[in-house]
Write a structure and sequence with these properties.
This protein is α+β, with helices and mostly antiparallel strands. The protein is built from 2 helices and 13 strands, in the order αβββββββββββββα. The strands form 3 sheets. Strands 5-4-3-1-10-9-8-7-6 form a 9-stranded antiparallel beta sheet, with no helix packed on it. The chain is elongated, with a radius of gyration of 24 Å.
């Protein structure tokens, strides 16, 4: 004899499903700005250049440094990760007029890693491995595209949100915040209220002689 399912049971099942779906969606990794692994000789504290940024936009686009411009990408969400794929048809500087493909994944702890590969028959080698870490305030790399004005955080001259703090007072003090400064807490850096370093000041004095 067929079992009858009451309307109340169906309603409870629907409510349970509505609670599960948002939880799964919350585990999916969002896009952002990711910094390619720097060479061993690169200073720990530095300002990021656009050439080392892989940007996955909230509008489902991706760009690879200054090599491959932003184009539409396919983002496929999985639990605790997001797959990213894109195809450039002749617009990458490293392979003009040729096709370049990217397949990768945003995942890892706190969705902080983008890993994948660029492939093109026009380049040597044909495959370029991509591994990048999510750009964030406090990582030691000043990233103006991420709204950062200084690194590291928490010291004199740089707050916890990577915004520069005024280093002087008075009517003659006009701090410049257009340039990203790194290592502002290091006295050897010599950051001044007007944004001129000791080395730059010395050079200006020599030129004036």
């Amino acid at each position: 004899m067929p079992r009858k399912i009451s309307l109340a049971t169906l309603a409870l099942s629907a409510a349970a499903l509505s609670m599960v779906v948002p939880a799964a969606a919350a585990d999916r990794c969002r896009g952002g700005r990711f910094l390619l692994q720097a060479e061993a000789s690169a200073p720990a504290l530095r300002v990021a250049s656009e050439d080392e940024v892989v940007a996955v936009g909230s509008d489902a686009t991706i760009s690879i440094g200054n090599d491959c411009p932003a184009i539409p990408a396919k983002l496929t969400s999985h639990r605790r990760s997001t797959r990213v794929s894109a195809v450039w048809h002749g617009s990458c500087a490293s392979a003009p007029g040729r096709t370049v493909r990217f397949r990768g994944r945003i995942g890892g702890q706190d969705c902080g890693t983008l890993s994948g590969a660029l492939r093109s028959r026009a380049t040597r080698p044909h495959k370029r491995t991509i591994r990048a870490q999510r750009s964030s305030c406090g990582d030691g790399v000043g990233d103006p595209g991420n709204g950062e004005q200084c690194e590291p955080t928490g010291g004199a001259g740089c707050d916890e949100e990577c915004h520069r703090l005024p280093s002087c007072e008075g009517d003659d003090c006009t701090p410049i915040v257009t340039a990203v400064e790194v290592n502002v807490t290091d006295p050897t850096y010599g950051a001044k209220c007007d944004g001129v370093t000791d080395a730059e000041l010395a050079g200006q004095q020599v030129e004036g002689l």
